[in-house]
Amino acid sequence: MTPRRDPQLDLEDGAGIYEDTGELFPGGSPSSAIAVTDLTTTAREIVEGAFPPMWVRGEVTDFKAHRSGHWYFSLRDRTSQVRAVIWAREARRLPAPPDEGMQVVAFGRLTVYAARCEMQFAISRLDAEGDGLRQKALEITRKRLAADGLLAPERKRDLPAFPRTIAVITSPDGAALKDIIAVVRKRGMGVRLVVIPAAVQGDTAVPELCRALDRVARWGEAEVVIIGRGGGAREDLWAFNDERVARAVAACPVPTISAVGHETDITICDLVADLRAPTPSAAAEAVTRSRPELVATLRQLHHRLRSGVLTAVGDASTRLDRASRGFARTAGTTVERKRARIESAAGQLHALSPVATLARGYAVSRGLDGRTLSSADDFSAGDAYDLVVRDGVVRSSVVAVNPRAPEQQ
Amino acid sequence: MKTFETRLTRLEAIVAELQAKDVDLARALELFEEGVECLRGASEELGKAEATVKRLVEKTDGTFRVADAGR
Questions:
Q1: Radius of gyration over every alpha carbon of chain A, rounded to an integer in angstroms
Q2: What ipTM is given for this predicted complex?
Q3: Per-residue model confidence (pLDDT) at position A306
Q4: Using the beta-carbon criterion (under 8 Å), do B28 and A304 form an inter-chain contact?
Q5: Kind and range of the H or E element at A338?
Q6: Which of A93, A102, A325, A402 has the fewest CB atoms lying closer than 10 Å?
Q7: Which residues of B touch A177 (CB under 8 A)?
Q8: Which residue in B5, B18, B25 is closest to A316 by CB distance?
């Protein structure tokens, strides 16, 4: 056989070689032809074995969320595309489905669907550029909560100033709980801190947080509840951005304080809670008052109480003063009036006095016993009597008595 | 039982009433006495009372028990 130089035809040369080698290789001869399934299965083994799981960059296109929960789409760049799938189990963990045209990096394995010999990239993690998926999820959740009025500022309830029973929903092993306990032990006079353990990250975090909130509600003894965790990567805080957790916080009959991560981490849970504390320690400080602070409060109240009563006593004594001065004034007026009356009476008395009459030339007869003798019957001949005149008394004696009434007209 | 908070709240109300204009003297003295009583109670409570850390345990019948934190 003449060797051919045309590379296009090398394959046929090869076929000839395999033909020659006969039964040694499966598919090496018509008689050893392999089944389609063997071909696709082998392809799968080779392809899947050749590529370790890896990150792939591309643009999302033809996105479809299947009813089963699986997400199907393609990843593409300018010239190529590959089918991609996110199985429901993984899809549930992602904050939100990607948008059409979104630039993403996807971590997955190149797989072969043997039944069709189709390659598809099976994705387990998906990050959009600029954390787009989380931003999108946050926006969606925020909008839904806002539509239900759960973010309205007027929903915020006041926290009790001195709660005696404080519930804490957090991981029993976390830094947050340690910080809260430290603050409460230091400041929280007589406070009962009751821990309701819940996972704060991972797959179980959302249901556990929701269940813990439900327990606080059903238990009914807590006066305030702190829900939170210490700082961590953004995805570690993600449960606190979950809509179910946010709704459970909003529905909690007990006033809530959200304390998630550090000051800069703001979660949906923070927006829904009655108070957002920058850290778990700050949450504990918000519902406990330090002893010195309380001592100062009591001292100040004591002072105000004293000054209050002194003012009241002072007011009363001022009123008493004013009243007594008023009384004196009133009394004085009365005396004046009485004096005037007395004087006028005295004048009248003077007018009525016989002294004035006597001055006009009349005289009054008096018996020696001082009785005024005004009738003829008062006299008997020979009796001695006094005749009182203007300027003296004339002892006289009765010569004769003629009873008649000379003044009757 | 009167808590620290109820005492303090009452005390604040008393002071407010006392500082209002035209409090009758008898009423003022009555308020003062009650206020002093509240102060005494609150100060006493301030003296004791350490914080305690517990753990909420839900029983199978859905009722709750507050147990020692145990760690």
A1: 58
A2: 0.73
A3: 86
A4: no
A5: helix A291-352
A6: A402
A7: none
A8: B25
